[in-house]
């Protein structure tokens, strides 16, 4: 447990694998920058790895980091819970940051709770937004400039705002794809500080026998237009229409969980709470009723078109344009209209 | 030989069952209208433990923390093959966040004589935090292996596990004791056994017995107390007693339990309300669809 250090910096954990940063730490930097500026403190990345991660510092700085705390050690080559938790805890104790953010990834959700337990600090999982704000304790003091940790809970049916005012640092994991990617600024300058953490073989609690990385075949996050199908499409056969429409539009194909569970489409395409969160310019929802779990993952699309035969489907409540009709009829008409445009 | 496994389980509202019936008029969810179920991934953790027992021998103990009603998930665990069931219930544990919960569970697990493997579902569907497993491991100073999709091997006090990392997988090996969190894709939970249901449907926890026998009367009334004690003794003799532990039983430091022990506090809860913003409707005809495409071209969404 550390004291509530009001001068403490905002930290992000810069997750890397095999010497490569994914999008997540960069997304954290964009939100972190906003928070640090509001609090008038520094934004710092914590980067650990084997011996090949120093080149990543520049990328972190260009994306908004003021400083990078760099820990290189042969035993940090592969991520392991205990060794990385040791690094993060030791640095937290030394510098007393006020906020520490992690990506809500397999790694971040393995590491952050271990750190939180060790530091006896609070942790909020899978946040979809973070803000700075005040909290009035009931019959108690007013706490100013706390981290408001906003997340869906209860299967997406409520939005909870969580705070922690007495046991710092304030920590959260942040859902992938929800924060915008910052534009890199090649002129940005920052400092790299090398830190030494004593890692022993005892800190490597497991041996990694085999590792297999799968390259995601589907990049929904980068798609400008997404055509997504749901259970209402009816069959795997009919789902071809979703692909055809996507091809005509140069769009990516998405699917609701129901469509994936029914085997209409591969899980890589799933949009929603347990799939990918997307914010395309256009989202065409075909035969998707619009359960809360799905809407959480796509409601920030700039334009939503809903096609459904049920006029009462909840998807229409967040749609900008709607067509009530049989999917089998509407899709070919739509493909035709798209091909004839202009 | 054999391994002693502990499985932590939770009774949760079925958040997937949010249908029109479970909605209040103001568009928010009526939680009381949702059925209480065995947290899905905890069932897979239990199945992993039972498979270990089937193959290697040993014991399976299930622990839950919650109100007396949570005994229902313990009975369901007994129906499936658990040997021992423990309910942690205590008013002073109310409002515990994940950190306080993992502290309380760690105190309980420390009370057990020998534990080789602690198994937890990766996450519960009411909170989806996936934090209690790793935090419990830290509190117990155990190695944590998260996201089990397959138990690859268990020999010579060593376990190997295939972990699903979302963007791939890895196989790791760890010495026992260990804490493992289990994914819903790990296995197919066995159904409750008919014979075990017949036997364990009578299993009760003292807190339930008190309620059933005393009702609205004072359970300390000598006559009622005697009945309660007799019933507890009877069930214990038959192996049908679900143990009740409170924070004193497990010698928990109250400063780390409940609201005081929870660093995270709720600032605000907003219900997600189905809002009718209104949308522009097009006919499912050639001209209707053409108008829609035209509109999207017009505002440069397509282009």
Descriptive overview:
The complex is a heterodimer of chains A (342) and B (303). Chain A is α/β, with parallel strands linked by helices and 342 residues long. Chain A has 2 domains: 10-203, Rossmann fold, CATH 3.40.50.620; 225-339, Rossmann fold. Chain A has 8 helices and 18 strands. Chain A has helices at residues 23-39, 56-62, 81-95, 106-119, 236-249, 257-261, 292-295, 327-339; strands at residues 10-13, 16-17, 20-21, 43-49, 67-72, 99-103, 123-127, 129-136, 142-153, 158-163, 170-174, 191-194, 206-213, 225-229, 252-255, 282-286, 303-308, 321-324. In chain A, α3 (81-95) packs across α4 and α5 (236-249) packs parallel to α8. The radius of gyration of chain A is 22 Å and the shape is globular. With 303 residues, chain B is an alpha/beta fold. Chain B is globular, with a radius of gyration of 24 Å. Chain B starts with a strand and ends in a 5-residue tail after the last helix. The relative contact order of chain B is 0.15. Chain B has one domain (3-205, 242-256): Rossmann fold, CATH 3.40.50.620. In chain B, strands 9-8-7-10-6-1-4-5-11 form a 9-stranded mixed β-sheet, sandwiched between helices. Chain B has a two-stranded antiparallel ribbon with strand order 2-3. In chain B, α2 crosses α5, α3 packs across α4 (132-139) and α6 crosses α7. Classes of the chains: A alpha/beta (342), B alpha/beta (303). Chains A and B meet through α3, α4, β7, β9 and β10 of A and α3, α4, β7, β9 and β12 of B. β13 of chain A pairs antiparallel with β9 of chain B, so a sheet runs across the interface.
Features:
heterodimer; A: 342 residues; alpha/beta; Rossmann fold; 2 domains; 8 helices; B: 303 residues; nine-stranded mixed β-sheet
């Amino acid at each position: 447990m550390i004291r509530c250090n009001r001068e403490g910096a905002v930290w992000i954990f810069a997750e890397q694998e095999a010497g490569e940063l994914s999008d997540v730490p960069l997304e954290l930097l964009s939100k972190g920058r906003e928070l640090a500026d509001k609090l008038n403190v520094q934004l710092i990345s914590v980067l650990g790895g084997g011996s090949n991660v120093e080149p990543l510092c520049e990328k972190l700085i260009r994306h908004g980091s003021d400083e990078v705390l760099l820990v290189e050690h042969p035993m940090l080559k592969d991520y392991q819970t205990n060794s990385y938790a040791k690094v993060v805890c030791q640095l937290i104790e030394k510098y007393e940051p006020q906020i520490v953010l992690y990506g809500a990834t397999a790694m971040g959700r393995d590491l952050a709770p271990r750190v939180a337990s060790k530091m006896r600090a609070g942790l909020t999982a899978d946040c979809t937004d973070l803000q700075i704000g005040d909290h009035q304790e009931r019959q108690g003091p007013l706490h100013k400039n706390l981290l408001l940790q906003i997340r869906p809970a209860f299967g997406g049916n409520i939005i909870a705002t969580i705070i922690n005012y007495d046991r710092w640092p304030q920590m959260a994991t942040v859902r992938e794809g929800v924060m915008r990617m910052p534009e890199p600024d090649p002129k940005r300058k920052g400092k790299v500080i090398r830190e030494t953490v004593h890692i022993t073989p005892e800190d490597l609690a497991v041996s990694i026998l085999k590792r297999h990385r799968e390259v995601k075949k589907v990049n929904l996050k980068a798609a400008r237009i997404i055509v997504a199908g749901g259970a209402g499409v009816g069959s795997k056969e009919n789902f071809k229409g979703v692909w055809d429409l996507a091809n005509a539009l140069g769009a990516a194909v998405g699917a609701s969980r129901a469509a994936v569970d029914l085997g209409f489409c591969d899980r890589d395409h799933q949009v929603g709470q347990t799939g990918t969160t997307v914010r395309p310019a256009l989202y065409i929802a075909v035969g998707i009723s619009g359960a809360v779990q799905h809407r959480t993952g796509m409601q920030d699309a700039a334009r939503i078109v809903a096609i459904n035969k049920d006029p009462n489907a909840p998807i229409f409540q967040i749609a900008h344009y709607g067509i009530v009709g049989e999917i089998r009829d509407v899709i070919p008409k739509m493909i035709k209209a798209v091909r004839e445009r202009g | 030989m054999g391994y002693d496994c502990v499985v932590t389980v939770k009774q949760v509202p079925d958040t997937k069952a949010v249908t029109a019936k479970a909605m209040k008029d103001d568009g928010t969810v009526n939680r009381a209208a949702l059925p209480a179920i065995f947290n899905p991934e905890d069932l897979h953790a239990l199945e992993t433990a039972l498979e270990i027992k089937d193959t290697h021998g040993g014991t399976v103990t299930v622990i839950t923390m919650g109100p007396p009603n949570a005994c229902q998930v313990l009975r369901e665990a007994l129906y499936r093959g658990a040997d021992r069931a423990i309910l942690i219930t205590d008013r002073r544990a109310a409002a515990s966040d994940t950190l306080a919960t993992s502290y309380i569970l760690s105190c309980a697990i420390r009370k057990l004589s020998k534990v080789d493997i602690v198994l937890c579902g990766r996450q519960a569907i009411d909170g989806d935090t996936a934090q209690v497993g790793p935090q419990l491991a830290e509190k117990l100073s155990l190695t944590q292996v998260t996201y089990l999709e397959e138990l690859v091997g268990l020999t010579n006090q060593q376990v190997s596990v295939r972990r699903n990392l979302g963007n791939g997988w890895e196989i790791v090996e760890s010495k026992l004791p260990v804490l493992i969190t289990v994914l819903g894709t790990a296995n197919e939970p066995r159904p409750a056994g008919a014979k075990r249901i017949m036997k364990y449907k009578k299993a009760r926890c003292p807190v339930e017995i008190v309620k059933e026998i005393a009702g609205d009367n004072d359970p300390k009334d000598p006559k009622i107390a005697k009945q309660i004690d007799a019933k507890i003794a009877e069930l214990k003799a038959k192996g049908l007693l679900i143990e009740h532990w409170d924070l004193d039983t497990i010698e928990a430091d109250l400063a780390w339990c409940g609201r005081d022990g929870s660093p995270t506090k709720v600032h605000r809860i907003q219900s997600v309300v189905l809002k009718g913003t209104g949308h522009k409707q097009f006919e499912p005809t050639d001209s209707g669809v053409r108008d829609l495409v035209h509109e999207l071209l017009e505002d440069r969404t397509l282009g």
